[in-house]
Amino acid sequence: MRLAVTEPGVPEIFHSLQGEGVSCGKPSVFVRLSQCNLHCIWCDTAYTWNFQGTEFPHRDDAPDAPRKFDRALETIDLTVEALADRLVSQPCRRIIFTGGEPLLQQRELGDLVQRLKFADPGFHIEIETNGTIKPLGLAADLIDQFNVSPKLAHSGNATALRLKPDALRFYAADPRANLKIVVADPADLAEVEALVSDCGMPASRVWLMPEGRSPQELHAREPWLAEACLKAGYNFTDRLHIHLYGDTRGT
Fold first, then answer.
1. CA nearest 52: which of 30, 34, 74, 31?
2. How many domains does the chain have?
3. Is the four-CA dihedral 44, 30, 21, 244 of positive or negative sign?
4. Residue 124: which domain range?
5. Alpha carbons 89 and 32: distance in angstroms, whole number
6. Is residue 250 in some structural domain?
7. DSSP annotation of 8
8. Which of 1, 70, 216, 235 is at a distance of 20 to 30 A from 204, taking alpha carbons?
9. Mean pLDDT by 10 residues, the chain (251 residues)
10. Is it true that the peptide bond before 19 is cis, omega within 30 degrees of 0?
């Protein structure tokens, strides 16, 4: 499996508190997989996809040149067996696969989760996904929680790429799934309402999160977004890890 790294040769696997959504505040072990099929202009893990030789724009681009990452330095490949051994020895049984887009590797991911559940049925497995890929096989059967984050227009992705109605309806029909939608501006709220209505997700399983990579950016958006959640019956989520650790890898 292809993972991101905290530094060259060191896979990004870390024990921390979940900072967002349904499981916010819960001790978790994160496994950051590399590669993504979307390319959000504000992404805070662009090192998982914004590689040299690509033409994707990002807000961190310098005025005279885009910021690109060296694929060889930013990724590491581990076998399913090797990764399972690492996770079994972790101090926590809540495992969160994030990215990137984990479901790009769902066949291997399903095999890995099967190994973990066999080693210890107490494992609780969560997937953080952008909602464009419908899980299949073991990746669909054995996951305990799907944290689905469909992207709005402000992400910079074309509508046909970022919104897959069949996949979103699958998640809406599955009680293991929830939506966590990044909101940057009050004008985004109409888009949120349409997305939630179209896929059929109950408001009680929707979390809205302010876009921001610093406490200052988050605080600026929190008051009006919290009020919008109250009015619509959505849940509000902050980004706890940003307040605790800043915008850093491995946190």
1. 74
2. 1
3. negative
4. 2-245
5. 17
6. no
7. T
8. 216
9. 97 98 98 98 97 95 90 98 98 97 98 98 98 97 98 98 98 98 98 98 98 97 98 98 95 92
10. no
Q: How many whole angstroms separate alpha carbon 79 and alpha carbon 81?
A: 5
Q: Give the whole-angstrom CA distance, residue 247 versus residue 1.
A: 25
Whose tokens are 């302010």? That residue is 210
Report the chain's terminal Cα–Cα distance, integer Å: 21
Q: What is the CATH number of the domain that holds 192?
A: 3.20.20.70
Q: Is residue 16 part of a domain?
A: yes
Q: How many CB atoms lie within 10 A of CB 57?
A: 11
- Let me know if 251 is exposed, middle or buried by CB neighbors in 10 A (0-12, 13-18, 19+): middle
* Residue whose tokens read 């885009």: 66
Residue 93 lies in a domain: yes
- Cut 0.85: pTM above it: yes
66, 85, 106: which is closest to 11 by C-alpha?
A: 85
Structure-block tokens of residue 62: 């310098």
Residue 212, Cβ density class (10 Å: 0-12 exposed, 13-18 middle, ≥19 buried): buried
51 DSSP assignment: B
SS (H, E, C) the chain: CEEEEEECCEECEEEEECCCHHHCCCEEEEEEECCCCCCCCCCCCHHHCCECCCCCCCCCCECCECCCECHHHHEEECCHHHHHHHHHCCCCCEEEEECCCHHHHHHHHHHHHHHHHHHCCCCEEEEEECCCCCCCHHHHHCCCEEEECCCCHHHCCCHHHHCCHHHHHHHHHCCCEEEEEEECCCCHHHHHHHHHHHHCCCHHHEEEEECCCCHHHHHHHHHHHHHHHHHHCCEECCCHHHHHHCCCCCC
